[in-house]
């Protein structure tokens, strides 16, 4: 079992042993839609980007009679992780409400975003799950376009175009320049598979010209999850068929009548056809990016788990269950019930396997999973966040849990596959029962501590090594640091607001160099 450690990571990279320093005041940018360049780019609005829909009003919901009480109240919408969330909130003495139109909640956690919830949100007094425009990070096209923009500008404005560089605190400029010299800013080709958009004519024509056999490409809808709508392109005939379908759509008379003639929002991405295998099976790694606070930004990295396929890997197989690792797809396999406990590994098991099978053969350092691999995931997450930071809607009380999926190829190169809003919190196998509840508990615990600032009244579920018998069942988040300072406002009158600048308890976070962070966390 590894020694538990935490690490501070500043906005632009890894810094150890010191408290976060905030940046200078910022000026708001006009609202930018998914994939749209920042205002400094002076570009026209990116074509073919569809906004993720908001529900205008709350749907009616069948609800039990609510017992009278003085609160605090919490509301849960949807089924994803609802039992775990309910247990945590009630352990704090909170009361659940079922009327989604009520505004007197302290926490609202919903799978679907409702516009009126954000309109009526009381900043500094409530917690609201999901940043309203998180699609700039969690849709395929949003992430692609923002990474491209960030790379095009060389990452030279690390704290967003909402700040003039001459007003940045000197240490931030010095830090960022040193990181650039050290190669800390990654090129997309180093971690993101080659990708084309199919909803823009120039890009899809570039893809059709680029494709040659026997390449394999994977086609994904921009906003779907659970493997829905995904298919592989394995030969020229399948590529030609896709091209013909898109052309047919554009020539359809009904389509031509539409005011905005936008093909389906999809991407096509080069398939990593030589992945590292675990016992002959394809796998990827689900990790977490917790945006615990947006005023200022406070980010955490959290280990998750390894997802494996039921069947041995065959790159030419027509069966998607040998290519896609998520549990929704794997449940469709006829042998899932027999092998489901082997389709999810905890990170300590993965680390042990790599040590035994690959350490000497590939010349890897001991515990590469918790050192080199973890550091690379944090670097990639941080770069993705910096690419969208200036575009995110920010209010004190907004928070988000992002599921980040990584693949390792046979040369141990780490690839980011996608970033997902509202990641699955199901516990349908033993490993997930050890991991997911802790992820949820510590996610909410950090909101109580840092945003509500009511540790004395509601209690703070801090890290306690005695609470778990396995290190991998813990969720000791590795801190990515505060990266934005809110403009000075009038002195708050609400007691919760007055405590919003409290620093996290030092007993919960210890400074450590990220290269030494070897504790497997969930």
From TrEMBL:
Gene3D superfamilies: ATP-grasp fold, B domain. It comes from Varanus komodoensis (Komodo dragon). Residues 488-509 have a biased composition (Polar residues). This is Tubulin tyrosine ligase like 10. It holds the Pfam family TTL. GO terms for molecular function: protein-glycine ligase activity, elongating. Residues 486-522 are annotated as: Disordered. It comes from the Eukaryota. Coiled coil: none annotated. InterPro entries: TTL/TTLL_fam, TTLL10.
